[in-house]
C-alpha cells in the first residue's frame, strides 16, 4: 500500500522558505504572487495491506517523526 | 486562484532524505516500510483569475525556480 503525507506549517506560523521563494519569484519578474507556503510531501511504500492498520501506522509515524505537531499539520492519503 | 505544486525527485535519482527517514522510522520500530521518497509541496496564492494564464505562469515558475528539472518532476494543480 502507498501512503502520501503532506506536512505543512500551521496557519499563523511564519514560513521563511515560503517568503524567500516569494521574493525570488518577484525578482524573476513574476508579479501577482500574493503568498507562498512550502511544505513536505512524503511518499511511503508500505508492506501493510490492511487499510485501517496502515492509517494507524502512518498516523503514528507522523506524530513521532514526520511532522513537528507543535507547528505543523499533516494530511494522510492512502492508495492501494 | 490557488496553485498547488508537487516537486518530486525523478525515478532512479537517489533520495538521501528519503533513505534517512526510512532508517529513522525503522529505528523507531516501524517495520514494513519498503521505500520513502520526500519532495516539496508548494502552495501559491495568485492574483491571476484566468486558469490558462495561471497554468502558464506556474509552469514557468517551476521551470525557472521551483523545480530543478534535471533531477525533479513537478505536478501543478489549480484551485479557484
From TrEMBL, chains A, B:
This molecule's function is given as: Part of the phosphoribosylformylglycinamidine synthase complex involved in the purines biosynthetic pathway. Catalyzes the ATP-dependent conversion of formylglycinamide ribonucleotide (FGAR) and glutamine to yield formylglycinamidine ribonucleotide (FGAM) and glutamate. The FGAM synthase complex is composed of three subunits. PurQ produces an ammonia molecule by converting glutamine to glutamate. PurL transfers the ammonia molecule to FGAR to form FGAM in an ATP-dependent manner.
Which family would the database say this protein is a member of? Belongs to the PurS family.
**What are the EC numbers?**
6.3.5.3
Name of the protein described by the UniProt record: Phosphoribosylformylglycinamidine synthase subunit PurS
Q: Name one GO biological process term.
A: 'de novo' IMP biosynthetic process
Q: In which pathway does it act?
A: Purine metabolism; IMP biosynthesis via de novo pathway; 5-amino-1-(5-phospho-D-ribosyl)imidazole from N(2)-formyl-N(1)-(5-phospho-D-ribosyl)glycinamide: step 1/2
Compartments, as annotated in UniProt:
Cytoplasm
Q: Does the keyword Transmembrane apply?
A: no
- Reactions accelerated catalytically: N(2)-formyl-N(1)-(5-phospho-beta-D-ribosyl)glycinamide + L-glutamine + ATP + H2O = 2-formamido-N(1)-(5-O-phospho-beta-D-ribosyl)acetamidine + L-glutamate + ADP + phosphate + H(+)
Q: Which organism is it from?
A: Skermanella aerolata
What gene name does this entry carry? Answer: purS
User: One Pfam family from the UniProt entry?
Assistant: PurS
Presence of keyword Nucleotide-binding: yes
**Cellular component annotations (GO), alphabetically ordered:** cytoplasm
List the keywords (alphabetical): ATP-binding, Cytoplasm, Ligase, Nucleotide-binding, Purine biosynthesis
InterPro entries (UniProt xref):
PurS, PurS-like_sf
Q: Give the Gene Ontology MF terms in alphabetical order.
A: ATP binding; phosphoribosylformylglycinamidine synthase activity
What does the annotation say about its assembly with partners?
Part of the FGAM synthase complex composed of 1 PurL, 1 PurQ and 2 PurS subunits.
Q: What domain of life is recorded for the organism?
A: Bacteria
Amino acid at each position: 500500500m502507498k501512503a502520501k503525507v503532506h506536512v505543512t506549517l500551521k496557519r499563523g506560523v511564519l514560513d521563511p522558505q515560503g517568503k524567500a521563494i516569494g521574493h525570488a519569484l518577484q525578482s524573476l519578474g513574476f508579479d501577482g504572487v500574493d503568498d507562498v507556503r512550502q511544505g513536505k510531501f512524503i511518499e511511503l511504500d508500505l508492506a501493510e495491506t490492511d487499510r485501517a492498520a496502515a492509517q494507524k501506522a502512518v498516523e503514528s509515524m507522523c506524530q513521532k517523526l514526520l511532522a513537528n505537531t507543535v507547528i505543523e499539520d499533516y494530511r494522510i492519503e492512502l492508495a492501494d
